[in-house]
Amino acid sequence: MMTELVLHYAPDNASLSVRLALEMQGRPYRTRLVDRRAQAQRGAEYLTLNPMGLIPVLETPSGPLFETAAILLWLSETGAPLFPPPGAAARGPALTWLFWLSNTMHTGLRARFYPGQFPFASPEETEARMTALLDMAEAHLAPLMAAEAPGLLDCYLAPQLRWLQLYPGPGWPPLSGWPNLEALAARMEALPATARVAEAEGLGPRPFTAPQPCRPKEGAAL
Questions:
Q1: What's the pLDDT at 219?
Q2: I need a labelling partner for 1 at 20 to 30 A (CA). Which of 142, 148, 155, 166 fits?
Q3: Nearest one of 201, 203, 149 to 25, comparing CA atoms
Q4: What CATH architecture applies to the domain 90-191?
């Protein structure tokens, strides 16, 4: 049985959220690069870990885990807590927004970055939907997060804010248009855990408030 954690990752991908959580916990783990340039995530070996062929996978003593939100919850429940525990009053709202980030916000980003996979929406419709999602997060999610210490929601939200700024559409407004979200990005950026991840993946000194294209030591983001 595996006794260590192994994060299968690519630089500046969805695995970034998991790596941030691991570093915030101070938890021992190893990384294993998934070479996207070689489409390694579609290879037979990787598909035995995640039949969806998506990044990330976390190998654990309980077996391989995939789906970012599931991995994040497992980490919090088996290590230093980064999420309200069962029975806590804050858990219900936190779960709601964790899965909103996974099922709604992240999906909206995918439609924006991979329009060929979402042919039912025009670019204008996708941009309008993304703006509406950010407005919702600004009004409802950000105040909830600001009342708590940085945790899983921050690990999931901050990379998404990074990608929105790094790969903007025509006329896309700056993050300063959503000041509550910008403040959350700044507090996440100030954590030592973020500095370690940014160094490892070549994300630059301000990965969430002034992102630069990553310059990783290994692999490629796209």
A1: 86
A2: 155
A3: 149
A4: Up-down Bundle (1.20)
Average pLDDT over the chain, rounded to whole? 93
Phi/psi at 79 (5° precision): -145, -155
- Other CB atoms within a 10 A radius of the CB of residue 141 amount to 23
pLDDT per residue as tens digits for the range 60-112 = 999 999 999 999 999 999 999 999 999 999 999 999 999 999 999 998 888 77
Name the pairing type of β-strands 6-9 and 30-33.
parallel
- Cβ density class 39-53: b for 16+ within 10 Å, e for less: ebbeeeebeebbeee
Token duo for residue 59:
């190998």
Q: Where are the domains of the chain?
A: 90-191
What are 29-32's contacts with CB under 8 Å, separation 24+? 29/4, 29/5, 30/4, 30/5, 30/6, 31/6, 31/7, 31/200, 32/6, 32/7, 32/8
Please, how many CA atoms are within 13 Å of residue 202, restricted to the half-sphere of its CB?
A: 11
pTM for this entry: 0.95
| Cα separation, 178 vs 133, whole angstroms | 11
Share of the chain above pLDDT 70, in %: 97
CB atoms under 10 Å from CB of 22, counted, come to 24
Sequence-separated (6 or more) residues with CB below 8 Å from residue 62 = 74
What's the rounded Cα separation, in Å, for the pair 39 and 113?
18
